[in-house]
Amino acid sequence: MKEKKISTATTIAGVKFDSYACNASGVKCTTLEELKELGRSDSSAIVIKSSTMKLQKWNDGPRWQYLGKNDMVQSNGLQNLGCEAYIAYSKKLKKYGKAIIGSIAGSSIGEYVTMVTAYQKSDVDLIEVNISCPNIPEKSQVGRDFEQTEAVLKVIQNLGHKPIGLKLPAYDDPAHWNKMAELILRYNISFISCINSIGNVLIIDAFSRSTVIKPKQGFAGLCGASILPQSLANVRAFYDRLEGRVSIFGVGGVNDGESAFKMLLAGADAVQVGTAYERNDSRIFTNINRELIEMLEYHHFSSVQEAKGQLLYC
Ligand code: DHB
Q1: How far is the CA of 268 from the centre of ligand 1 (A)?
Q2: pLDDT tens for each residue of 68-103
Q3: C-alpha span between 163 and 86 (Å, rounded)
């Protein structure tokens, strides 16, 4: 008898995903062509670049630099085509038959309200509210200031029926996990994406004595395989605190089936792939899924649901 193939299908906030891996906002998801490429790929969703109210240009270059084989620093500056463009695109992307995730980065409470209201009326399935972009000069990350976070959550929670999620910064203090988890539960947040890049690292080239990135005097977000320990910790910390009431995207350092499997053990419902998609092509989604199935088979799990959260303690 032929053995039944394991599926990596999953759900985020009640929305079905055919497989466990999709793209992370930021990488190759700014133009319509890039979004269509995600539609044609094995990415299980189309996650759109974080949008602002109006088109925003790149920071001056060099604004990104590859590090080693699997990492990168970047300070792009939230370049995007503006939220109206993405709302129009969401209609065109429907034909790919997969979840469409709009992402929003406001610079005031009023902007968050305006954009969440607009996305609530659009064709996106889920709305990811980015409260953790570290690359805007002079702007603090909303997600590091719990009063600001609460002020945003209060006003965006009842603007429509599409599930709202939060893209969170990397926390490293249990008191911060406690506080943020309490806010997430109190304000009916349906999903979280942990984590954004590790903000404001500084890479120095000793030969040229120079920073490698131009914006913000070289301070930039660190992404890729080396941030996996921080993303795993954040996924696990929130999994432990959110009582199964909130879906979790694991983001940060997922580049193969093994890292996706670790996210699954930590408690992620799905993973988003950023740097590994930047440094490879869209076959990365196919490969991660195939290798994740191999990991599940090896450990005798028959589905991602069965393996979710099943981390062992030594
Ligand atoms: C950018 C970086 C981020 O980490 C983010 O969340 C949004 C935008 C950027 O620099 O473009």
Answers
A1: 22
A2: 999 999 999 999 999 999 999 999 999 999 999 999
A3: 18
